[in-house]
Structure formats: structure tokens, C-alpha cells
Amino acid sequence: MVSSRANSTSSLQLILDVEDFKGDFSFDALFGNLVNELLPSFQEEDADSSEGAGGHDGPFNGHKRAPSDTVKLALEPLFPEVDALLALFKDSCKELIDLRRHVDSRLQSLKQDVATQDANHRKTLAELEKGVDGLFDSFARLDSRISSVGQTAAKIGDHLQSADSQRETASQTIDLIKYLMEFNSSPGDLMELSPLFSDDSRVAEAASIAQRLRSFAEEDVGRHGINMQSAVGAANASRGLEVAVANLQDYCNELENRLLARFDAASQKRELSTMAECAKILSQFNRGTSAMQHYVASRPMFIDVEVMNTDTKLVLGDQGLQAGPSFIARGLATLCKEITETVRKESATIQAVFPSANDVMSILVQRVLEQRVTAILDKLLIKPSLMNLPPVEQGGLLQYLRVLAVAYEKTQELAKDLQALGCGELDVEGLTESLFSSYKEEYPEYEQASLTQLYEAKMEELRSEAQQQSEAAGAISRSKTTTNPSTHKQISVTIVTELVRWNEEAISRCSSFSSQPSTLAANVKPVLNCLLDQVSQYLTDGLERARESLTEAAALRDRFMIGASVSRRVAAAAASAAEAAAAAGESSFRSFMIAVQRCASSIAILQQYFSNTIARLLLPVDGAHASSCEDMGTAISQVEGAVRRGLLLCIDTVMAEVERLLSTEQKITDYRAPDDGNLPDHRPTNACMRVVGYLSRILEVAFTALEGLNKQSFLTELGDRLHKGLLNHWQKFTFNPSGGLRLKRDITEYGDFVRRFGAPSIDEKFELLGIMANVFIVAPESLASLFEGTPGIRKDGLRFVQLREDYRTAKVASRISSVMAET
User: Fold this and answer.
1) Cα(815)–Cα(803) distance, rounded to whole angstroms?
2) What are 718-745's pLDDT values in tens digits?
3) Is the pTM of this model over 0.85?
4) Which among 29, 49, 400, 791 is most buried, taking Cβ atoms within 10 Å?
């Protein structure tokens, strides 16, 4: 059976071709094609054997067979097709080896063909490269020849163009010579000219030729005039050309006048195209200056008198210069708006007509500022005489300055609006400044004179009010026993505020008129000095008036001082008059303190104004700020001097009343009470209570009015004077021990009061007074230890110890002789 299957297998013919391995080659497909004829029979046999064994139990190599078949199966091969497959695989390998050899042979043949073709191709490429190189050389030679031919053609063209230009120039020169000969025929004869110069349709060409002939003739005349002495026959030639020049000048003038007349006629009809044509031709005559000026001068706003009258009426109204700055400002604003609108309309026409529109606008704007604006300024700004100032009731110098500031501001605004419309190279700002140059030169003097006039008018007004108040209250004679400080006009912070406001307004004008920092500083400084002088003068005069009331009260007080040997009736009358004088002194004191307080407020306003307004204007200029600070310090020091003099007089007034109260209220028994067995009185004496009450009442206004160093120096001086006055007063009395205790109580009361002064040196003096009062209280034998323990009271204590009631009886002098010897 095996041999039969092997024979059947060997009988199979293998057919392998190269085409089988091309494209999408698959080994699995190739293998399957080889074995599919053998394997199906094996599969069928395997399936049959599987079905025959399906009814038996127990597996054996996947099959269940009877024991009788075991030997038989062992003798047969498990896979009988293997021999056929091996033969098939051997044949396939042999076929594949043959196929590989065949393919290798074909591949080798193809390689040889490819090598041959590649060699041929390389040879062909080399030949082509040589051909291309030759072609490039040919093209280079051709390009070179073309370039050479082009350059030659360009040169020929240039020569032809130059020849044509020369021909054209020669032709034009011939025509110009012919025209020049016509103009050179005879002086003033313009009748034999070519039709060109009379043909209205060729005016532009005639104008151009006439200008060229005129330029040539004038140049020739000038050249011959220079070389006349060295050139033979030049005089005749020059003379001939002079005739041409004169005729050409006449013709140009006549032509220009014709064009201007045509321009005017077109302008009346608003024929912009004709105007533009004439303007273009006229631009050949002096660059068209005559046409530009003629057009601007013919504008209605420059020649119509009604326009000028309307301007004046609009700005000044029916009241003239008395209309007021606000009315004038509104009128100027309206006028400037109307001028700007007129110039805007003219600008549209100028842009459409003139080739050089900017030049025309420059002439127009200059004419507006120099004629129309200047005309209204001349009527507005009439300079007052500084020798004869206008009355304040009519506005004074301030009216002129305010109108000047308004006019300057509105003119500047107008200049900016006109600049925005376009005016060529015209320096509008410089021209505007020149309109006000004469006014600005004298401006600082007018500003100072105005401030002085306002100050004097205000002071006169205050004097008139004071006089009216005095007359209403009734005339006060110096022979009367009382004075009324209210009749003196008190310092007013409102007045100082008004002075500062006037000055601030003047400074704002200085800032408007002064563009350079140095000029501004130079104008601000004298204006500020006016304010400093006025404030200083006003405050000083007010302080002097208040001080005069203190002086009058002091004179009244001295008038009623009487001696001790007078009758009771006279003494009573004198005491009543003294009370009245004291009341007048207290009223004057209060008035002066109020004046000092208002001075301080006024100085604060002045300093704040300087810091907020003046300083920033002076700081950019070296030395200006420091100089003004020095001037301000001088003005303030003058006021402080008046304050110091008045405060000293206030202290005199206070101490005079203190001395009067002490002399009238202090009793001998206050410090030397009789030994009647009653308990000593530990209350302050009546004189002490009256003095402290008076000081508390009168110094209340001082504490409110004074501040800073003024308050400190005033209270220190008053405390020192009070200390000395009390020492002098107590030296008039004799003290016993109970009186010493009473004195110590008074000193405590005085010390508590002066402690409100906040002056440590005064507090120390009154503390020593309290210790010194012990010289009247301690026993005689303890005095020496008291002086030795308190050296500060030794000087005054040795004087006061002599006022002890028992100074002689207790032989106090001998007990303190050692202390006195050391002193």
C-alpha cells in the first residue's frame, strides 16, 4: 500500500514558474497548491477511522480499536502520505534550484544590458553638455552684441534728443530774438508787435515770453553796464537793450493790469475758473505778489467802512469803554468768531483760485491782524495818563487793565483759530505779540499804579466810614473823662483778603502777558511788593491806632492820680474817675488784642497766598524766590515791631491797674492782724482776689488772640513784671506770723494763676516767693537755718525779713548776722 501511494505521488508533475513569485506572493498559497492533492485522501481516511471508533469506550491515541487489530495497526505507518510528500518536496526543491539558476542567468544578462545602456547614456550626456556649453557661449556673445548695439542706439537717441532740443532752443531763440527786436524798435511803441502779444487767447504764452525777454534784456543791460569802459560799442548795445527793457516793462505792466481787470471782473461774478486762470498767469509776474495783494486788499472787510463800524458797535455797544470788561469780552468773542468764519470762507476761494494758496492766506491773515484787529484794539486800549489817573468811580486803571487782558486773551484765541486755517510761513504768534508790544512795555507800571489807586481808595472809604460813625455817635472831645476805642476803625481780615484778591488778579495778568520765566518773575516781584507794602502799612496803621487808644487810656489814668492829703470828696471823685480810666484801659487792651489776632490771621493769609500762587512763579528763576522771601520777611517784621510795642504798652496798662487795685484794696491789717484770740484767716486777701480776678478776665482775650512766640514772650514778660510789682508792693507792709501765713496764701493764689502762663521761669520765681514768706512765719532763731537751706531766697529774704513785726524786739539782725556777712 505504501509503494502504491509513493508511485502515485511520483507520478505528479510539478509546474513552477517565475510568474508565481511576482506580485503578492504567499508561501502558504504555494505550499497549499503542492500538498492539496495528497492531504484530502488522508483527511478522508482519518474521518472514517474516527467514525468507526465512536462506539467503543476508552481512548487509545485518539482511536478505540479491538485488541485483535493491535498488531495489524502496529505494522502499518501512522502517516502513510509522508513518502509522497517527501518526494514532492524533493522535486519542488529541484525545481526551485533550477528556477533560481534560470533567474540568476536572466539577471546577469539584464545587468550586462543595463551596464551597456548606462555607458551609452553617459556618453550621450557628455556630448549634450558640450553642446549646451557651446550654446551658452553663443548666447553670451549674442547678449554682448545686443548690449553694445543698445548702448550705441541710446547714444544715438541722446544725440538725436540733444539735437532736437538744440533745434527747438534755436527755434525759440530765433523767435525770442525776433520778438526782442520788435520791442527794441522804438521807445514806447507797442503797436508793431506780433499778434501773439495782442491775442487774448494766448495771454499765458505772451506773458511767459515777455518775462523771458525782460529777464534776458535786464541781464544783458546789467552785464554791459559793468563792462562799459572796457567794451567798445557797448554803449550803443546797452542803449538798444534799454529800449527793449523799457518797452517790455510797459507791456508787462499793461498785460498785468489787463489780467487784474479780468480777475476783478471774474471775482465779481464768482467765476472761479477764470480767476484761477488769471491767477496762474499772474503768478509769472513777481511770483503773483500783485495778484495776491490785490485780491486781499479788495476784500470787503478791509475797505467797507460799515464793517469797521459794525465791529466797534459789536464790541463796545452804546456805552463805549464804560461797557465793562465782561460785555467787551462777549463782544470780542463774537467778533473773533465772525472773523474766523469770514477767513474760512475766503480760504475755500483761495484754495480753488491761487497756485500758491498758503502765500495768499499768509497775506490775508497778516492783513486781518494788522488792520481789522488793530483798528478795534486802538479804540479799546486807550492808555490812561499815570499823572492824571481816571477816577475809581469810572473803573480807574483797573478797568483799562482788565480790558487789556481780555483783548489780549481773545486776540490770542483768534490767532490760534487763524493758524489752524493755514497761513503759510507767517509767524502768527509773533505778529500777535507785536500788536501788544507797546502796551506790554508799560504794563508793570500801570499794574502797580492800579494797585496803589485801589488801596488808597479803600483807605479813603474806611476813613469816611469811621468819620460817619463818629459823627453819628457824637463828637468826642479830648476834655471828656472817657475814651471810646470803638471810634477807631479796627483791623479787618476782610480788607486784607480783598487786597490779596486784587493782587492775585494782577498776578494772573502778569502770567498772561509774560511768556518767559525771567520776564514773569521780573513783573511779579514789584506787584508782590505792592501787596507787601499795603498789607504791612494797613496792619501797622491799625496796630498804631489801637496803641494810641492804650496811650490815651494811660494819659487819662495818670490825670486822675491824686496825693494822700486830699479831702474825702475829692478822693471819691478821683476814685470814680480812676475806675472809668481803668475801664477805658481794659477796653483798649481788648481792642489791641483783637487787632493782634486779626494781624496774625492776615499774615497767615498772606503767607498762604505766597506759597500757593507766588512761589511757583518765582522758583524757575535763580534768586527771585529768595529775594521775595526776604522782602516778605521785612514786611512781616515791621508788623511784628508794631505788635511788640503795643504788647509792652498792654503790659503797662495791666500792671497799672494791678498796682491801683493793690493800693486801694490792700489793708494794713491784712498782714498784721491783731492778736484778739480769733482764729487766723486762711483765705486770700481781698486785694489778691481782685487782682487775680482782673488778670483772669483781661487775659482771657490774650490767651485767645496770641499764639506762638508772641504769646510766650508776652506772658513771660507779664509774669516777670507781676513778680516785681508784688515784691515792691509787699515792702510797704509789716508782717506778723499770722500775716505771714496770709501772705503765703496770697502767693499760692498768685502762683496758681501764673502757672497758666506755661512759663517755667515764672513758676520758679513764685515758688521761691512762697518759700520766702516763711521769713515771717518761723521763729527768729530758725531764720539762719532757713536762709542756709534755701540760698535762692537769700537776696530778697534779707530785705523782707526786716519787715517782721518783731525785727527789732527779737534782735533778728544779730541772729542772721552771719548770713548777712556772707551776702
Assistant:
1) 15
2) 999 999 999 999 999 999 888 899 999 9
3) no
4) 400
